Amino acid sequence: xxxxxxxxxxxxxxxxxxxxxxxxxxxxxxxxxxxxxxxxxxxxxxxxxxxxxxxxxxxxxxxxxxxxxxxxxxxxxxxxxxxxxxxxxxxxxxxxxxxxxxxxxxxxxxxxxxxxxxxxxxxxxxxxxxxxxxxxxxxxxxxxxxxxxxxxxxxxxxxxxxxxxxxxxxxxxxxxxxxxxxxxxxxxxxxxxxxxxxxxxxxxxxxxxxxxxxxxxxxxxxxxxxxxxxxxxxxxxxxxxxxxxxxxxxxxxxxxxxxxxxxxxxxxxxxxxxxxxxxxxxxxxxxxxxxxxxxxxxxxxxxxxxxxxxxxxxxxxxxxxxxxxxxxxxxxxxxxxxxxxxxxxxxxxxxxxxxxxxxxxxxxxxxxxxxxxxxxxxxxxxxxxxxxxxxxxxxxxxxxxxxxxxxxxxxxxxxxxxxxxxxxxxxxxxxxxxxxx
Length: 437
Description:
Shape: globular
Number of helices: 7
Radius of gyration: 24 Å
């Protein structure tokens, strides 16, 4: 259904447009047998059909890759969401790793020679979308990403993997992805046809994503904060959260602060007692246009403020501008921290623990594929995968992740095909260390 150059990618090179929508008519009178969406929105995307968020707990999708070599697309069964008659689809795009300024990378050549380069993965964000509908009478129809869609900026003014996001809730529309939506105040413009992120000339591939998902909410660690004794508590129940293997947290896997303090005027700090990977949720009530500034850190200063010197250039913060809803408004910022690269050695050191506790075979098979995508012809591999920081070739402390992970996957699952699939890459790497490091 999806091949590298069959479907248009849409977006904008002129105006930041992260909300894209389209209405379409399903005119066949025969009942719908199946409806499947194939989608890739890079850096990240969220999808809505007829005003409903599709799989809302799924986050930071699709997975991060060396986009020129491999870009993931995802499939959804949306049979229950599509109806005969008019329908509407909406997609929100985020910059993710595709439209980021990345770090200085050192490339080492033949032991002593070095050269420096800056790596840019510059968007703009873009969308590839196909809806494939099959009817009971065997007729079929498709809806594609093309210039019949419309796009606008929306409430997210800025988003960054390192610097958080700025959200102006005054420009948020809850019904923007439903049929008949009419917004005369926003500037909806026809999107441009953009190039595919995949470089076909270098054998790049558009690939169906097949690895564990990142989720917030169901089956994920999550905490919620509501401040004030008169506020009704709405922490998620154990049944709503589900279970997490390898974790032992209280209150149904919901983390609540052990203390709330006010070290400075109009500043509140929430102590979660432990460092974690998670998602926070805030409920605010206040005048329209008031800005809430949220910062994330791992350690307190002696004065009760946050220690942030280790963040280097990352702001690791979010700004939310209130819409003024008298019933209160919910904001869930994206998680932020300064260090989030795919260091090879870290992946190798944690492989046994991850396999025993979380059965992450698909995650690690994907990581091996990403290593091979960026492996040089001479066999060298880099410090980080995808390569955003470090040197290529890396030293063996990091590079031996390739044979180490492959071997541990074979040991855990007794699948000889894993060795067959990666033998050539491991041999090339070993020869590169012998001859050229």
